[in-house]
From TrEMBL, chains A, B:
Site, as annotated: Involved in the stabilization of negative charge on the oxyanion by the formation of the oxyanion hole: T112, G113
A Pfam family this chain is assigned to: ArgJ
Protein name: Arginine biosynthesis bifunctional protein ArgJ
Organism lineage: Bacteria, Pseudomonadati, Lentisphaerota, Lentisphaeria, Lentisphaerales
Residues the record lists as binding substrate: T148, K170, T181, E261, N384, S390
EC number: 2.3.1.35, 2.3.1.1
Gene encoding the protein: argJ
Reactions accelerated catalytically: N(2)-acetyl-L-ornithine + L-glutamate = N-acetyl-L-glutamate + L-ornithine; L-glutamate + acetyl-CoA = N-acetyl-L-glutamate + CoA + H(+)
Length: 390, 390
């Protein structure tokens, strides 16, 4: 629907930098995102009951709804580190504020990597010194510093006459490989109040990142932060902004799903005609998270039994098999309570691509939802069974 | 606690047989379990919203609380087959009743295998002819006819002076490999009323089979049936019977978990000191189902981060990290909010066995629960990605 910029750019007034500060043996492990003007800000964090120190600190910082910078390290997540971990998180933002000459309480921090290991904050403090000079307008540079097991740096932007919207993200693959942590930063020079930005962020996240799953394992560090610095100085139509914002979030969600641990293909589950959106989400998530759906997609097998099973295991929901229609990559495979006579060979060939779309028509109402995920492969087992946690 | 018989036997008056009736190219695909006297009976079935035809029919048959036989086929599950499927399920029990010369409405049926494929009921009808002559007292014979991807036939018995209790089960591995279907039949010559048997069955199943998961995918055919024919003619102490019944169910659960698709080890998750049993079950299930816990067990890695994550993702539950203690194979790995100084090499060696016990002490109350599962391996991906559904 929207045309994304061929080469992603940072919005007016935003810049970023990445470097190696010695936490990783090689590759960038420290990133800085900066707005020359304090921005209106909003954030959503993981619902995990064991949130990381940066999430605990971040929830306090975002209360002011103002941010000028984000500082992120990879390799060590600063989770399960007690009170000392929270102190080190604040030392991280203080060091970034000093380097950028801005207010400490307008800098937010993220950390991603192994859990229950002390944050090497001295390396981060030293690494930040002089980093302001590296700031540039290429969001892929910032994206490289937050990567863990992602196979490539992820940034997209969408520009219109009035403003630019840029998203930098890191994968919901495992952390080195430890845990599906997703870090996403949305920057815009559009003029939006913190209150409106918060609403737009939550609507966008609910339709995109919150419908993404690589392996059902919710990280202790998931964070999405949005910053709007208003430097475009144009009035924004909020509905149009919401649509553009959501479209960009969905695009980034698809990128994260495709690059999930060991993934070879994107799975999209479209549930339609549910009683309501809540029910549609339950069914879509059950499908996208089922190991049997994930392996059948990997094996290019249009297995009706597994689709029926995955829907049916959503206990306490309405399901009328007689009204149910199952469609895989546009081919109806189940209707009127029985398997249809589809061309199985042709459908197998169609599933043997980098994207599989499962469409579920429930025939019950007008609720709908889409979930995003990936296939389950040897690669997932390899990365996560071979991992050393310390 | 209880000593199981070295060689399993059927209780007094019970017998079984298996044969190949032509549904599978080779190997037994039809099994018959028979009591010479009509037994008091109880059953629990899958909660899947797309139950198989035998589950739909079985729910009607069990209302009478009387059974004299169970007939089971493997290879085709008779699920997603519409009204015709239900008719064929009843044809199956009618044919068994005719062969055994008992009442049609006292014979229950199960089917396990591929979904959305018509049941070849003529083969079953022909196969049953003359099968009464094959009935024998070895429960492993009956167990062989209900196998799908199980690697061995599963039957156990526990005998005391007063009665024998025998369980025949098939794996919660995939069906050929399609779906984690569990079929379990419990036979006893103890004298127990149908009402008491139903209570004992539900208590036993809740602590055993309902706490088992290979891959979170609930089958459309799961069935546990209990039959008590009273031929021991001794009074039963119901509490003692319950304990013995539950112990046998737990033993069979562990056998099914160990033989899960591609599994190399049994995972036991003991959650203690929860607010209540309900909460303990939520945490235990989250741990046993987490792909990251399953792969770390496979990789022999005592990864504290993944344990914290799996507990923490149980949103809307109480969790106090300061009170939390995590113990792996008897070694405390997390306490007082931080990782302990345990001998990692020794613990890795201890995890490198066929059983891993994760113990979670929540410090919140006296609720407890145990969940049973297995590791996630290449074998699981291979069996389920390579599968052809038709």
């Amino acid at each position: 629907m929207y045309k994304f910029d061929e080469t992603p750019v940072m919005p007016k007034g935003f810049s970023c930098a990445s470097r190696n500060c010695g936490i990783k043996e090689e590759g960038d492990d420290l990133a800085l995102f900066y707005s020359e003007k304090t921005a209106e800000a909003a954030a959503v964090f993981t619902r995990n009951l064991v949130p990381g120190a940066p999430v605990i600190a971040g929830r306090e910082i975002i209360k002011k709804s103002k941010l000028q910078a984000v500082v992120v390290n990879s390799r060590v997540s600063n989770v399960g580190t007690g009170d000392e971990g929270v102190k080190r998180a604040y030392r991280m933002s203080a060091a970034a504020a000093k380097e950028l000459n801005c207010n400490e309480d307008e800098v937010i921090m993220s950390s991603t990597g192994v859990i229950a290991v002390p944050l090497p904050v001295e390396k981060i403090e030293s690494g930040l010194v002089g980093m302001k000079a590296d700031l540039c307008s290429d969001p892929l540079i910032g994206a490289s510093g937050i990567m863990t097991t992602d196979t490539y740096a992820k940034a997209i932007s969408i520009s219109c006459d009035d403003y630019t919207l840029t998203i930098v993200g890191k994968g919901s693959g495992m952390i080195e490989p430890n845990m599906a942590t997703m870090l996403v930063y949305v920057f815009t020079d559009a003029a939006v109040s913190a209150k409106d930005l918060d609403t737009v962020l939550r609507v966008g996240v609910n339709k995109s990142f919150n419908m993404l799953s690589v392996d059902t394992d919710t990280s202790t560090s998931d964070t999405v932060i949005a910053m709007a610095n208003g430097l475009s100085e144009k009035e924004v139509d909020l509905d149009e902004f919401q649509q553009r914002f959501s479209a960009a979030c969905i695009r980034m969600t698809e990128m994260l799903a495709r690059d999930g641990e060991g993934a070879t293909k994107l799975l999209k589950i479209l549930v339609e005609e549910a009683i309501d959106e809540k029910q549609a989400k339950i069914y879509a998530r059950a499908m996208v998270n089922s190991p049997l759906i994930k392996t059948m997609a990997h094996g290019c097998d249009p297995n009706i039994g597994r689709m029926l099973m995955a829907l049916g295991k959503c206990f306490d929901n309405d399901l009328d098999v007689a009204k149910l229609e199952l469609i895989v990559n546009g081919v109806t495979v189940f209707a009127d309570s029985v398997k249809t006579n589809f061309d199985e060979k042709a459908l197998r060939q169609s599933i043997d691509s980098d994207e599989v779309v499962f469409q579920v028509k429930l025939g019950l109402g007008s609720g709908e939802a889409t979930a995003y995920g990936c296939d389950l492969t040897h690669g997932y087992v390899d990365e996560n069974a071979a991992y050393y946690s310390s």
